[in-house]
């Protein structure tokens, strides 16, 4: 499905990013994994290589635009191009809006929104010059709803990702670059550990889950693979929820 294509996944060392990198490699792509934790990126890349795939893992702070430029240039040089970007790196600070420190607000927005733009722009510069490509941003159901818990910085940043996706899709469509997003509900990762470890919070999440089962990272990766693949050649500017019915209420 993705043979002879190169895919780059930010936050690729664990959780949803690791699942995306693994599935993209299984679909035939050469995969680059960027993560603030270089060891986790390399560990996942090693696992992919041991399974017969081609993968490159490296440390990168995607909020550092110069570091992004260097990392993407290395990926293009070593893997031979860049046709797919998965913007996955993100964080959250779950405190009431009246209590969040502005520095924490800025850090969340910088990683969840500004870095998504920076990585998309860097990837698009190559894609626009080499026949197109596909960008998949990891948004959230919280970018399409007010959410369950106080988390204003996360909700605002993911809402920004939703409309950034639409804006970039329209800007680059005529030149063959598709831009879409996946909006997961709660998925068991390090980011949601505080929710899943609290029975009361987990019960509240399940009360907003009509299907009665929450997706695993691999379920999100499957949606990403679809949007990144030729199967979605006529799909751009959409936000695909993988939410077990959350947004249908």
Task: Give a verbal description of the structure.
The structure is a single chain. With 249 residues, the protein is of the alpha/beta class. The protein has a single domain, classed as 3-Layer(aba) Sandwich (Rossmann fold), CATH 3.40.50. The chain is 46% helix and 15% strand. The protein contains eight helices and seven strands. It has helices spanning 15-26, 38-50, 65-79, 102-129, 152-172, 193-196, 199-207, 217-228, and strands spanning 6-10, 30-35, 55-59, 84-87, 133-138, 177-184, 239-242. A seven-stranded parallel β-sheet has the order 3-2-1-4-5-6-7, sandwiched between helices. α4 (102-129) packs parallel to α5 (152-172). The longest helix has 28 residues, at 102-129. The protein starts with 5 loop residues before the first strand and ends in a 7-residue tail after the last strand. 46% of the residues are buried. The model has no long low-confidence stretch (mean pLDDT 96).
Task: Throw out a few tags for this protein.
15% strand, Rossmann fold, alpha/beta, 249 residues, 8 helices, 7 strands, single chain, 7-stranded parallel β-sheet
Q: Would you tell me the structural class of the helices and strands?
A: alpha/beta
DSSP summary, beta strand count = 7
State the domain count. 1
Rg (CA only): 17 Å
User: Average pLDDT across residues?
Assistant: 96
Q: In CATH, what is the homologous superfamily?
A: NAD(P)-binding Rossmann-like Domain
Uncertain spans? none
- Provide the spatial order of strands within the biggest beta sheet: 3-2-1-4-5-6-7
């Amino acid at each position: 499905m993705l043979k002879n294509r190169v895919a780059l996944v930010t936050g690729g060392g664990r959780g949803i990013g690791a699942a995306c990198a693994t599935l993209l490699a299984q679909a035939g792509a050469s995969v680059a994994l960027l993560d603030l934790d270089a060891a986790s990126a390399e560990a996942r890349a090693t696992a992919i290589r041991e399974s017969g795939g081609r993968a490159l893992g490296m440390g990168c702070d995607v909020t550092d635009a110069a570091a992004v430029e260097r990392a993407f240039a290395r990926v293009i040089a070593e893997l031979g191009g860049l046709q797919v970007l998965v913007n996955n790196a993100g964080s959250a600070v779950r405190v009431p809006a009246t209590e969040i420190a502005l520095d924490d607000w800025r850090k969340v927005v910088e990683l969840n929104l500004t870095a998504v733009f920076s990585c998309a722009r860097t990837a698009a510069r190559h894609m626009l010059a080499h026949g197109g490509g596909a960008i998949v941003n990891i948004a959230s159901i919280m970018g399409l709803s007010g959410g369950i818990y106080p988390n204003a910085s996360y909700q605002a940043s993911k809402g920004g990702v939703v409309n950034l996706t639409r804006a970039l899709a329209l800007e680059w469509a005529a030149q063959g670059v598709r831009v879409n997003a996946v909006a997961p509900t709660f998925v068991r990762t390090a980011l949601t550990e505080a929710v899943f470890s609290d029975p009361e919070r987990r019960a509240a999440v399940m009360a907003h889950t009509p299907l009665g089962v929450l997706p695993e990272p691999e379920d999100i990766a499957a949606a990403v693979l679809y949007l990144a693949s030729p199967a979605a050649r006529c799909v751009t500017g959409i936000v695909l929820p993988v939410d077990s019915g959350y947004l249908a209420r």
